[in-house]
Write a structure and sequence with these properties.
The structure holds 2 protein chains of 2 kinds. Chain A is mostly helical. Chain A has 9 helices and no strands. In chain A, helix 3 runs parallel beside helix 8. Chain B is mainly α. The chains are: A mainly alpha, B mainly alpha.
């Protein structure tokens, strides 16, 4: 076991010491692209709360929603991102994101059970706004593909975090705590909505 | 109704080259020689890697038969495509990989049960297209064919390791994890399409 570790460490050291490995690739902006993509979904509280709420709701609903929602959200979100990248305008993006936090928070708070497809439809509807907002914000010089990979992975990780937290649903105290968390998300969403309306809802 | 599924896959395979656009070269130098340059190439070309992972996951979910077929068909088609790319010249694509990644990820997320020959056919199409692109880049850079050999070795190792893991999946949650991975791949493919549209000046 120790020899394997030594070999891995030696390999890592050798790869760092080889200058050609760092200079040879002809493209640019990979590191900043991946880092920006990973950072972007966690840089806004509105997005973080909505993503975690998707996981919480999925955990409350159980199978198949526990995996259907995290499958639906990234795909529809990416569709929204594609629209944004293609220059298709979407009105009221900030309003949509704020409403998503309210709706998902209320769903968790009240333990709403619209059925797996109803839940997927609701989550997918709001995912378009999140994707559109993020898809258009690539920093200059960053690699678009690596940004996209980081963006999707970070979003999926937030869902997984929500599901992980939501597993406390199996205990009575955990159920109460989840409903309280849903109320907090909904209240935060109301604050975001207030700000969006005050700021023009762009 | 049973003919619709293979027809849809065939439509994707046929449309992909039609949507072709020029792409940038992305050969990677390790300083260790052409074979090793080829070996790491796949891991420095995410648009290629995503397609390989997508088709491998799809084949793995389909069972041992399609997984075995893809294990040999994909590297062989890749090598053939590389040779063709070297001989024919540039026919590189931007929209085709994005469309392929989106479709493959979607099929994995949906846990689509396709016939083995369909999965193998898609793998061959991917191998020929991506191999062709790499071949054209090799020709443009006057690089050794050992790069292609290294790339095919990396491809074979990746497909065998990943495909073997997916075929041996028994726990329901593990199969769901693979499907979630497929949805991520599809999402990345959709964003790739968006970047392609923007990069080609289609946007306003």
């Amino acid at each position: 076991m120790r020899s394997v570790r030594r070999r891995v460490a030696s390999l890592a050291l050798v790869s760092i010491l080889l200058p050609a490995s760092a200079l040879a690739h002809v493209r640019g902006g990979e590191a900043i692209g991946l880092a920006s993509g990973l950072q972007h979904p966690v840089s806004g509280l509105d997005h973080v709360l909505a993503m975690v709420a998707v996981g919480l709701w999925g955990a409350q609903l159980g199978a198949p929603a526990i995996w259907l929602l995290p499958v639906t959200f990234p795909m529809v979100m990416a569709f929204g991102g594609m629209l944004g990248l293609a220059g298709v305008k979407l009105p009221g993006i900030e309003l949509g994101i704020a409403c998503s936090a309210i709706a998902l928070g209320v769903a968790v708070c009240l333990e709403l059970r619209p059925g797996p497809w109803g839940a997927a439809l609701l989550v997918g509807m709001f995912a378009v706004f999140h994707g559109h907002a993020h898809g258009t914000e690539l920093p200059p010089g960053a690699n678009g593909l690596l940004y996209s990979i980081g963006f999707v992975v970070a979003t999926g990780t937030l869902h997984a975090l929500g599901i992980g937290i939501g597993l406390v649903h199996r205990w009575p105290a955990g159920r109460t705590a989840l409903r309280a968390a849903g109320a907090v998300v909904a209240l935060a969403g109301a604050t975001f909505l207030w700000r969006a309306i005050a700021g023009g809802g762009a | 109704m049973r003919w619709r599924r293979p027809l849809s896959v065939a439509a994707v395979v046929v449309l992909a080259p039609v949507l072709a656009r020029p792409a940038d070269a992305h050969l990677t130098g390790t300083g260790l020689g052409p074979f090793y340059d080829g070996l790491v190439h796949l891991f420095f070309a995410p648009e290629d890697l995503l397609q390989v992972v997508g088709i491998t996951l799809l084949a793995g979910l389909g069972g041992a038969r399609p997984a075995r077929a893809v294990l040999f068909a994909l590297p062989a088609a890749w090598l053939a495509g590389t040779v063709a790319g070297v001989l024919v010249g540039p026919h590189t694509t931007v929209l085709a990989p994005a469309a392929a990644v989106t479709a493959l990820g979607g099929l994995v997320a949906a846990d689509a049960s396709l016939p083995a020959w369909t999965i193998t056919g898609v793998a061959i199409a991917i191998g020929v297209l991506d191999g062709g692109q790499n071949g054209a880049e090799l020709a443009g850079a006057h690089a050794s064919m050992l790069v292609a050999v290294g790339a095919v070795c990396a491809l074979f190792a990746t497909v065998s390791l990943l495909g073997g893991q997916v075929v041996s999946v028994r726990a329901p949650w593990a199969r769901i994890a693979v499907r979630v991975g497929g949805s991520w791949i599809s999402a990345i493919g959709l964003l790739m399409l968006g970047w392609s549209l923007r990069g080609n000046g289609i946007t306003t």
